[in-house]
Every structure is written in C-alpha cells, then in structure tokens.
Design a protein that fits this description.
The complex is a heterodimer of chains A (222) and B (516).
Chain A: H1 9-22, H2 24-31, E1 39-43, E2 49-56, E3 59-62, H3 69-79, E4 86-90, H4 96-104, E5 111-115, H5 118-127, H6 131-134, E6 139-143, H7 147-157, E7 162-166, H8 168-171, H9 175-199, H10 206-221
Parallel strand pairs in A: 4-5, 4-7, 5-6
Antiparallel strand pairs in A: 1-2, 2-3
Helix pairs in contact in A: 1-2, 3-4, 7-9, 9-10
Chain B: E1 2-6, H1 11-15, H2 18-27, E2 32-38, H3 43-46, E3 53-57, H4 59-68, H5 73-89, E4 94-97, H6 100-110, E5 114-116, E6 119-121, E7 125-127, H7 131-142, H8 151-158, H9 174-186, E8 195-199, H10 211-223, E9 228-232, H11 238-248, E10 255-257, H12 264-272, E11 276-279, H13 283-290, E12 295-299, H14 305-308, E13 316-320, H15 338-342, H16 345-361, E14 373-379, E15 387-390, H17 394-401, H18 418-438, H19 441-464, H20 472-491, H21 495-515
Classes of the chains: A alpha/beta (222), B alpha/beta (516).
Chain lengths: 222, 516
C-alpha cells in the first residue's frame, strides 16, 4: 500500500468518486468533512503509513503497527476462521487487514465493513488506496452509523450464515459501540446456527449446532 | 495417527493420565497427540513431550458467566462452536475421553473414527464405547472393594496400552523451580533443611482429617525428626494454617505457610524440594508422585487406595479399612465418619518413621503392628498393574520385588536450564499475539498479564541463577525499558504498541539471552 500512498486533494477526489459509485450518501458526508486534528498519520519502519489518535493527556493509540502494518495484516488474516458465508469485519482503520483479507478470499460473499470512526475513515480516503476494496461489488461500508442502524442493515442482509472478524486496535477505541454490535452478531449467529442446524440447511452441521447447546447444559451443571 | 485426549478438570486426574500419554507415544511414535483441557489446567500438559498440541476450554469462566451473566450465552455458544469446528478440521482418528459426559459430548461433536472411554448418543445419552470403560464403571458401582486396579492403569487399559509403561510425570519448568526456591528461602528455608510438605485440606469435608490431628504430626516432625514443614493447599484453606500456627506455639518458625501461594507449576517446584509429602487423597498427592517425591497418603473409607492411591513405587498408604469401606455415598454416612477418626496422629508418625527407614536402608525388615489400620507400600513394574503390598508381607516378598526404590530424587527430571523458561515465554507470547489478532479484548488483557508475569519470572530466574553476570546491560538497558514501555502502552490501551514491543523488542532480546 505504501507505494500507492498519495496525500493530495486529487487523490482524495478520486477516492470520493469511487466511493460515490458505491455509496452516494457516504461520499457526500466525506466531501466537505474537516480533518480531525486528533488523528495523525505517521510513516512506519516499513515505509507504509500508520495512524494514531491523540486521546488527550499525552496518551496516543495506534491503529496499525508502527513497524510493519502489512505484516500485521497478513498475520491478522492468518488468524481468522473464514466460512463460506457472509462476512462482517469490525474496525476498518486504514484498511490494511481488509485489503489482505479480500486478496486472500477472492470469492467471498458480501462483506460488511463496520467502522465507528468517521474521521478515521475520512483519513483513510486521503492516505490509502481504497480502490481495490471499492472495486468489489459485494463490499458494503457501514461507517459512523449508530448501533441501531448497523443492526438494521445487518439483520436485513445477513440472512445466511456469516462470520465476523474483529480488528482490535480500531474496535478498542469505541468499546461500547463495538460490544453492542458484537452482542448483536453473536445473538444472530447463535440463532442462525441453531435454525440452520435444526433445518439441516446451509450446509451446516446439524449435530454441531444443537450439540453445543447440550454441551453448555453440562458445563453449567458441573 | 492423530489422537485427541480429553480431560478438562481436576489436576490430579489430569496428571494420572500422563503414563497413558507416554504409552500412546510409544505405541504411535509418529502419531500426533493433542490434549483438550480446561484453560486453568494447560500448564499440566503443555511442557509434556508426549503432548504435541494443547487445546483449552475456559470451563470455569463459562460456568460463572452462564450462572451470573446469562446474556453471554450466545458468545459462549459461538466460541464453543468455533472451537469444535477447529477440532473437527484436525481429523482425529482416535479420541480417548476420560471426562465422562462432558468429554463424551465433545467427542461426539468432534466426530472421529474411534472413541475410547465414552461417547454420546442423542437417543441414549452417555454410552461406553469400549468394554474396559464399561467394566470400570460396573466395578466401581457394584464391586468397588474387589477392584485391585489403579485408575492410572485403568486409563492405560482403556487406551489399549500396557500398564506400568510409564511414570506419572510433571515437567517443572526451570523458572517455576526457581520460583519455588525463592518462596522457600523467603520463608527462611536453607539448602540443608529437611523439608516435609503437608497438605491438610481436601476438596470435600468428609476427606479432611482435621488441623488438630495434623498439628500433632507437624509438632512431632519438627521436634523429634528435626524437619521443617511446608504447608500446601488452596486459597480457601488458609484458616487451616492459622489453627496449626496456634497449636505450634514456639515451634511456629519451623513451618512455611505456602497455602494459596502456589500455582500448579510452583506447586510442582516446591514438592520437588521436599523429602516427603503427607496428605490425604488429593491432587497434590498426584503432583508429588509426578515430580518424584515420595508420599505418605492417608486414605479413609471415602477413598480407595487401590483405585486412586499414589502411583509408582515406594509410596506408603495408611488405610482405615472399616467394614463399610470403600464408601460409595460418604455424604450419607451414618457412622459419623468413624474412618476419619480411626487413623490417629500416632499411626501417621509411626508410618513416617518406617517411610524414612525404607528410604535410608532401601528395604529393612518392617513390621506394622496395627490391625485396624493397614499400611501398604506401592509397587509398580513395567507391564503390570500397580500393586499395594502390605508392609507386613514385604519380608517374604522381598526377593520378588527388590529393588523397590530409586534413591530419592533420581526419578526427578533433569533441569533443562533456561530453555524451558524461554519456551514458556514463547508459548505465552504466541497466545498473546493470537488473542490480539482474534480481537477478543478481555482474553488479550488476561494474556498480557500472564505474559508480563512470565517475564518477571524470567528476570528473577536470570538474576537468581548467575545469568545476571554479563547480562546486566541487556537487562537494564533493553529489557527493562521495553517492559516499562509495554506497561505504559497497555495502561493507555494502546494495544498496537504493546504488540509491536512484544514482537519486535522482547522476542529478539530473549533469543539473545538464550544464545548466551
């Protein structure tokens, strides 16, 4: 990503243009949005950019590795358990991990990218190449939405089995928002796994879906 | 052969599977053995060379959340679902389940060619999957007092392994050994002190002999046998130590109270330093035999020494052989637990004298004059089930069973230096990194605390074992500032910086320390 980094207005305009083709409202939102002075992009040891948020009182929180964000993205992707279903990624940051994930899983079904921090996404439009993400038809951005809107969008769309993936550095900036979203996803996943299991559809394992309930009963009574 | 062994709780029971693990490894030298256990039990098997991979379930945490925070149900469900999916992908050809119902459901869900021990069927519930497991169950239920086989050997038979093919082992990491020495020296113990460990508590009240009885024995050990006594036990047994202190009066200084102060690794390290352990039928008893420390075990009617007695050669077992024992429902005892009172401090002191003379002279003539209380010696031979030999029969059997013992300490595992410390550090680092990437904040926080704890131990170990010489520069100029920086980042919840420090600062420093 480092080689593609451009930090001028024309670059941002191109990104906005791409975004507009995907999500007009979002593009409008970012068109005139002022930069957030508490966010600062910094060159890492590998030459790519990372970003940090000034939390006040001399405290900073980094969103990507200060050494090698691409390596971090590769390890993050290695650690994810991916099923052939819909995908939700919580925490976008500058998107290194998302790009790596999409590169690795080319035939993935719809991917929902949730980022609570609008300013961070705005910065991502300026400093990172989102074209490879936006080129994919099935990628949807849920940026700066409240919990209810996210719930609405996801409940309308996640009608098949799905997995969700957490990018901790970004989600830990907004713990309440993301825990609520995770709770919603966990509840939906449970419901879907059980329903699919009982109907033995979606290719899931009927035994596993209902058997885990039994397992929990035993653990509870031990 | 890809094998999974399941046992999630009770640390003594997990240690009792170690001979079976050794046997499985011998039987399938190219096989891969995985162990699924509780998250708080992983230390028991993670350094065991017969175990290739450890999986864990935070069973206790789950139980707490299910009872107190039911809104976490979906999270727990999904975590278990994902864990089982991961285990399914491992494609095990054999599962040895030693955890009855919980393990049975897990084995059923993981699915495999063969399950030994027990599995589950939605129609029939728990089912035994082999004749030996069925036989064990029936024996304990209906014919317990005719069972001559230790559970360790039962496990071997269930897994199709020859009994006596391996010893119970716990690999005390060097760092825990150092930690144990530190704990003991802080309690005033010197290198030439003769230590006897005493575990007074037991998980269930009907297995507790009582602090007054132990106080008699401890007083005798200190006054007449010139020993120092280490008290062991869990956090909720602290008041037992108070009673002992009160009873001992001026001899108070000869006891070291480590109740609630040891984790599993350090417990192993402390027991290694002791000449003997005196205990009831406890997990600590199995830990002692696993680190090569002989045991004098007190078995009342509630436990049966043939079944769960200390495993290996040269341990002594006092057994209150009441007509009603072995007891199947001790909670409903109508004899006021008279078996507990049958063993007196005098019996224990006398048995201890014999234990010492056995160790000193290897096999002196022994007599045990008590009729109502039996004294047995444990004996293990390769290819055979463990036997309990009545001390009074040893003379005539001596030819057949000699030599009985290793010299104290020779069965212990050789120290492996700093490698185990670095290896533990490496495991903890990997876990921390994994939790970061999986995005579970709470697990990451827990893993970081454990990681720092591990680092502290490494530093203490390096300093306390002469590694400090020549290492000061690295320690003070590189490692210490890195730890400080990581702490600060962690406090600020700057997890990326924490991980950068862990991956790019700590790891190379530790590697350099090891190379030196």
């Amino acid at each position: 990503m480092a080689a593609d980094m451009l930090m001028d207005d024309s670059y941002k305009s191109n990104m906005l243009k791409l975004l507009r083709s995907k999500n007009r409202n979002l593009a409008d939102l970012f068109k005139d949005m002022a930069p957030d002075s508490s966010l600062e992009s910094i060159r890492t040891d590998s030459g790519s950019l990372t970003v940090r948020r000034n939390m006040g009182g001399g405290i900073y929180r980094y969103i990507h590795s200060m050494v090698d964000p691409e390596r971090e993205a590769r390890i993050w992707t290695d650690c994810q358990f991916v099923q052939n279903g819909n995908t939700v990624i919580l925490g976008y940051g500058l998107g290194y991990h998302v790009l790596e994930f999409l590169k690795r899983y080319k035939n993935i079904k719809p991917v929902y990218l949730v980022e609570a921090d609008e300013s961070l996404f705005r910065l991502a439009l300026e400093v990172s190449d989102l074209s490879k993400v936006m080129d994919i038809v099935n990628v949807h951005f849920l940026i700066g939405q409240d919990v209810d809107s996210v719930k609405q969008t996801l409940s309308d769309s996640l009608d098949n089995l799905f997995t969700y993936h957490v990018f901790l550095p970004a989600t830990s900036l907004y713990p309440e928002f993301y825990s609520s979203v995770i709770r919603i996803l966990d509840d939906s996943l449970l419901k879907m796994r059980l329903t699919a299991g009982r109907n033995n559809d979606c290719g899931t394992d009927n035994l596993l879906a209902t058997g885990v309930e039994k397992l929990i009963d035993v653990i509870k009574d031990l | 052969m890809n094998i999974l062994v399941i046992r999630t709780h009770r640390f003594g029971d997990i240690l009792q599977l170690t001979p079976m693990l050794e046997g499985l490894k011998k039987k399938f030298p190219d096989g891969k053995i995985s162990f699924l256990t509780g998250s708080d039990m992983t230390d028991l098997v993670s350094c065991n060379p017969n175990v290739d991979e450890v999986f864990s379930i935070p069973e206790k945490e789950y139980r707490w959340f299910l009872k107190n925070r039911p809104e976490h149900y979906s999270k727990i469900y999904n975590e278990l679902y994902d864990l089982i999916s991961e285990l399914k992908r491992k494609d095990f050809q054999l599962i040895v389940n030693r955890q009855y119902e919980l393990g049975a459901i897990l084995a059923w869900l993981i699915g495999t060619g063969e399950v030994l021990g027990g599995s589950f069927s939605p129609e029939r519930g728990f089912i035994f999957t082999d004749d030996t497991s069925q036989e064990l169950f029936e024996t304990i239920r209906t014919n317990r007092n005719h069972n001559n086989r230790n559970l360790v050997d039962w496990s071997c038979h269930i897994a199709g392994i020859s009994p006596g093919c391996g010893k119970m082992v716990f690999y005390v990491p060097e760092i825990a050994r150092s930690d144990a020495k530190h704990l003991l020296s802080r309690g005033g113990i010197k290198d030439d002190d003769l230590l006897v460990a005493v575990q007074m508590g037991a998980a269930r009240s009907f297995r507790q002999w009582g602090p007054e009885n132990y106080a008699h024995v401890i007083k005798w050990l200190i006054k007449d046998r010139n020993k120092k006594v280490v008290l062991l036990g869990s956090d909720d047994e602290k008041e037992l130590a108070e009673t002992i202190r009160h009873n001992l009066g001026s001899k108070n200084g000869c006891i070291i109270d480590l109740i609630g102060k040891t984790d599993l690794n350090t417990l192993g390290g402390v027991l290694e330093q002791c000449q003997y352990l005196i205990t009831g039928d406890t997990g600590t008893m199995h830990m002692a035999t696993s680190v090569g420390t002989p045991v004098l075990a007190l078995f009342y009617g509630t436990a049966y020494p043939w079944e769960t007695g200390p495993y290996g050669t040269g341990n002594l077992v006092l057994y209150a052989d009441e007509p009603c024992s072995p007891c199947l429902v001790p909670e409903e005892c109508t004899f006021e637990h008279k078996c507990l009172k049958a063993i007196t401090p005098r019996h224990v002191c006398k048995a201890f004298e014999l234990a010492e003379s056995i160790r000193k002279d290897n096999l002196p003539p022994l007599t045990w004059p008590e009729n109502n209380i039996k004294l047995f010696l444990t004996h293990l031979r390769s290819g055979f089930d463990q036997t309990l030999i009545s001390v009074n029969d040893i003379d005539e059997m001596a030819e057949g069973i000699f030599p009985l013992f290793d010299k104290p300490g020779t069965s212990r595992l050789e120290s492996d230096g700093i490698e185990s410390a670095v290896s533990m550090f490496g495991n903890q680092r990997d876990l921390l990194v994994k939790q970061f990437y999986l995005g579970n904040k709470q697990y990451f926080i827990d893993a970081f605390s454990e990681f720092i704890c591990q680092l502290d131990k490494i530093l203490r170990y390096l300093n306390g074992n002469g590694y400090g010489n020549g290492y000061e520069e690295i320690l003070s100029h590189e490692l210490m500032p890195a730890i400080k920086e990581a702490h600060m980042a962690f406090q600020a919840e700057d997890f990326v910086t924490v991980l950068d420090i862990v991956q790019y600062n700590f790891t190379p420093i530790i590697e350099r320390l090891r190379r030196r």
